[in-house]
Write a structure and sequence with these properties.
Elements: H1 11-26, E1 33-37, E2 40-44, H2 46-52, H3 54-61, E3 71-73, H4 79-91, H5 101-111, H6 114-126, H7 133-142, H8 146-158, H9 160-163, H10 167-170, H11 174-181, H12 191-204, H13 206-209, H14 213-217, H15 227-235, H16 241-252, E4 266-275, E5 282-288, E6 293-296, E7 308-311, E8 317-320, E9 323-330, E10 339-345, E11 349-353, E12 358-361, E13 373-377, E14 380-384, H17 392-396, E15 398-402, E16 407-411, E17 422-426, E18 429-434, E19 437-442, E20 447-450, E21 458-459, E22 462-466, E23 469-473, E24 476-477, E25 498-502, E26 507-510, E27 524-529, E28 532-538, E29 548-554, E30 559-566, E31 579-585, E32 591-592, E33 609-612, E34 615-618
Helix pairs in contact: 2-3, 4-5, 5-6, 6-8, 7-8
Length: 622
């Protein structure tokens, strides 16, 4: 082709060629090879098979006897999986599901179909969960799929307290078992859990596994065991071969240990969309009340904003929905040089890998949603409503996520459409509140029931379930007649209103107000910290220097008291859009927030002027 020639690519021709090959296959036209597996015949074209499979390419081009045969018997190949691979070779479409993917991967591995292997690998990694992670770790190890093996191993480490009782754990190879019990990343709060797991594996087949006793137990962190366990295990054992080994290890092992990752967990307030100094810039951070430190979490992908968030009982953190910026376009002429982002509402759904400090994509929701209410109820995640997601029908939609199947299904919609709502779970029932309305969803029957109305109508309030009751805190009071917000002067700036719902009596009553200085901005967030009902609150007006505090509720006295004042030198202005939840995270896997000034440069009296290297310096704004 000369330099002057134009190269034209006809994509329609490529599609047509594939369709013709598929037609020839379906009608068995010009087929030149018949694959026979388990008595089933598959007439095919050598050229097509050789194109997608290194195994068939070598078979048909080697000059060996198979290259001249018209019928080839394949052993150690699953017929159903071969049919899926052949269909992929002729169409480019691969049918994968949970029941077929592992057998398909094994067949594709034998036939060396790289594209199918890659698609199966991605599917399996995406589907790793607490129920299958041990088996998939062994599967990845068996087929030398390191990416799958490591992904599954991280889940085993994260869910160790529950998965070590699975039968698949008892079937682990000695190499994988030792790899786990020696890991620093096990999410266990007590070393007794690792000891129990190790002994259960050894006792599962005492005869064949007794040879590994010394090696396995040598990886236990003996000094992390309680004194009672040490005394019982190492000194009170009856004399036998096992006790001799155990007691010998106890005497020989050094008296120090590195704590497992789960032993370093701290309960933290996770703050979504914390404002930064630059307008329009946000970050995801967490504040540890115990250490009084701020840590940086990995931001959600694609600059995702206005998400819903939930933490499961197993401490899994999920976010859903939100919006992503599309492009920057110049705003009106009254603001020259200013840019305003346009956004697209999404149905994204992510799980937070706390060990890697990264967000892992899961199956997206069925509906796009901005700031949906997310709750965990009876083993499922529910996404409820959301702001500005279309018409009234869209705002009423509710869907449920199955963590094991990684799939969403729609359930009964809300009785009414809300632009804003808050949801909590009590006794495996979901309660959704907006303005003065409360609805209860009963998952077992799939029906919504209207409950007693609140005494006041408020929006943007926060809610938490505690001690079998629902606490509805703060928010902006609304006019029932017009639906609008009342002016700030009517809200009362000296305390925060609290209403409590008794689910058994189906009635609301007023509880003690929170004695915090409060202005019109609704910066009050209900949280449960250390099994106590608390609020995380901004106590100053939005235009003043931000000061945050944590108040705790005393149920017996019906009284709130200040639990912790948070210095503005630790936590900067989060603006009013932030939302928060509570979860346990690993400080060693996070970055200490770069916005926190070093404490050693502050003067003892807390003044903004302090001495540094002999000079007086003014504290910069945080």
């Amino acid at each position: 082709m000369s330099a002057q020639d134009e190269r034209q690519i006809n994509t329609e021709y490529a599609v047509s060629l594939l369709e013709q090959l598929k037609l020839f296959y379906e009608q068995q036209l010009l087929t030149d090879i018949v694959l026979i597996v388990e008595g089933t015949e598959f007439p095919c074209h050598k050229m097509v098979l050789a194109t997608c499979s290194s195994y068939f390419r070598a078979m048909f081009m080697s000059g060996l006897s198979e290259s001249k045969q018209t019928h080839v018997h394949l052993r150690n190949v699953d017929a159903a999986s071969l049919q899926i691979i052949i269909t992929y070779a002729y169409t480019g479409n691969l049918a994968i599901n949970e029941s077929t993917v592992e057998q398909l991967y094994e067949t594709a591995c034998f036939l060396q179909v790289d594209d199918v292997l890659q698609l199966c690998r991605e599917y399996l990694i995406k589907k790793v969960n607490a129920k299958n992670c041990v088996r998939l770790m062994s599967f990845g190890d068996l087929f030398s799929c390191e990416e799958l093996k490591q992904s599954a191993k991280r889940m085993v480490e994260h869910k160790f307290t529950s998965v070590y009782r699975q039968d698949a754990f008892m079937q682990l190879s000695s190499e994988l078992l030792i790899d786990l019990v020696s890991s620093d990343n096990l999410n266990v709060e007590k070393e007794e859990t690792v000891r129990e797991a190790a002994m259960s594996w050894l006792d599962y087949n005492t005869v064949s596994r007794s040879q590994y006793l010394s090696t396995v137990l040598s990886h236990l962190r003996i000094d992390a065991l309680s004194e009672v366990i040490q005394r019982e295990w190492f000194q009170g054992l009856p004399p036998n071969d096992k006790s001799v080994v155990v007691q010998g290890l106890y005497k020989s092992m050094p008296r120090f240990f590195k704590p497992r990752l789960g032993m370093t967990k701290e309960e933290m307030i996770i703050i979504i969309e914390a404002a930064l100094e630059n307008p329009g810039c946000y970050s995801t951070i967490c504040y540890s009340p115990q250490a009084e430190k701020v840590y940086k979490l990995c931001n959600p992908p694609s600059e995702l904003l206005k998400v819903g968030a939930v933490v499961s009982p197993d401490n899994d953190i999920y976010i859903a929905g939100g919006q992503v910026p599309l492009k920057n376009a110049k705003s009106n002429q009254n603001k020259p040089g200013k840019f305003q982002a346009t956004f697209r509402t999404v149905n994204s759904f992510y799980w937070f890998d706390a060990q890697q400090n990264t967000w892992i994509p899961k199956t997206p929701m069925l509906c796009v949603r901005i700031k949906p209410s997310l709750v965990w109820c009876d083993g499922y995640i529910y996404a409820i409503g959301g702001d500005s997601v279309g018409g009234e029908l869209n705002r009423r939609t509710v869907e449920r996520y199955d963590c094991e199947k990684d799939e969403w299904t729609l359930v009964s919609p809300l009785p009414s459409a809300f632009q804003w709502s808050v949801a909590v779970v009590v006794h495996d029932c979901i309660y959704v509140m907006a303005y003065n309305l409360t609805y209860c969803f009963i998952p077992r029957s799939g029906i919504w029931v209207e409950m007693a109305k609140r005494q006041s109508s408020r929006c943007f309030a926060s809610a938490a379930a505690f001690d079998g009751k629902i606490f509805y805190l703060g928010g902006l009071q609304t006019d029932n007649n017009s639906g609008g917000r009342l002016p700030a002067s009517t809200l009362g700036a000296s305390s925060v209103a609290v209403e409590v719902f008794d689910v058994h009596k189906n009635e609301w009553y007023m509880a003690a107000n929170i004695p915090a200085k409060r202005f019109a901005d609704p910066c009050v967030r209900a949280v449960v910290i250390s099994n106590s009902l608390c609020i995380f609150i901004r106590e100053t007006h939005i235009n003043e220097k931000a000061k945050y505090a944590i108040y705790q509720y005393d149920m017996d006295l019906d009284q709130w008291f200040l639990r912790q004042q948070i210095s503005e030198r630790v936590l900067w202005d989060l603006a009013k859009e932030f939302r928060c939840t509570v979860g346990k995270l690993y400080p060693s896997c996070l970055e200490v927030s770069p916005w926190k000034p070093l404490t050693h440069v502050f003067s003892q009296d807390g003044a903004d002027d302090f001495e540094l290297d002999g000079n007086m310096v003014t504290l910069p704004p945080v």
